[in-house]
Amino acid sequence: MDEIVVTPLREDGPDWRATDEEVSLGAEVWVNGRRMPNVFDLAAWFPAIAEDGLAPLFTCGCSIFGCGGYNVDIERTPDAWVWRNRYAPITRSDFAEWFGEPIPWDRVRPWLHTPRDDGSSRILETFEYRFPWDAVDAITARLLGELRQFAARYPDRRLVSYGGWDLSALVR
Ligand SMILES: [Zn+2]
What we know:
alpha+beta, 3-stranded antiparallel β-sheet, 5-stranded antiparallel β-sheet, binds zinc ion
């Protein structure tokens, strides 16, 4: 099994998106003692623990997924939350447009492993991490608690992730 550490939530967002209406929240994710590159997008955590498939867990420093960032391939097994590989930042709507909905990940995965026409790869890094569910569930519970604290601290502002996604449904 592998070790995942998520640092406490803090106010974290690109300067250009700092507004009086929003509070942008983020954290760092460390796996086996290495900080995962680019910027963790908190909003992607919650769907990724509930659903298999490519998840946009890390975004660009400018906050725009697609400019930078990457997908991680998620599989939920009975004993572990499995992360496989860093893939080029293709959006869900692009996958849906190209492959249809619900997105057939069993067809998308082999396609991701086929080089582009110019010979370049859509795979940015290969790995397989297996995180025990008790550790993942503890992190999720802690993140939700921290989100509620921010919601109480900023009752008149919208909580968003680094990528700008609304988090308020998680704290209702
Ligand atoms: Zn960027």
